[in-house]
Design goal:
Strand content: 25-35%
Radius of gyration: 19 Å
Strand order of the largest sheet: 1-2-3
Number of domains: 2
Helix content: 25-40%
Order of helices and strands: EEEHEEHH
Number of strands: 5
CATH topology of the largest domain: GMP Synthetase, Chain A, domain 3
CATH class of the largest domain: Alpha Beta
CATH architecture of the largest domain: 2-Layer Sandwich
Structural class: alpha+beta
CATH superfamily of the largest domain: K homology (KH) domain
Amino acid sequence: MELLIDFPGGARVDAHFGPYTVHTDQPAMGGGEGSAPTPFGVFLASLGTCAGIYVLGFCKQRGLPTEGIRIIQHTQSNPLSGMVEKVELEIQVPPGFPEKYRPSLIRSAELCAVKKHLENPPAFEINTKEVAVA
């Protein structure tokens, strides 16, 4: 998969892939306009939405309604390093959601590909290349 990252102005940085564009910005105190989430915010959102895709798939496969189901994500950061040390996902279900499926909802959320990549991180290689400006 190839993503093209560009700089449309100010503190905005966008990622383009396929037919999609993900816009990011910094808050005003970080030199931006706050017109979009920060890159780190998009990263954190990818964790919860990825888990949500698996929860949604589980429910659809079993004909379970998803109305009233939501995931609340909390992060705990190290006060010294600022690094996230814990991510908690709480799958909230409406009254009457079958009790027998709750453990399976958790197992389905644990299949999240973003989470699995954090548990087994890829190697990174960063380099530069000179190209002519069109």
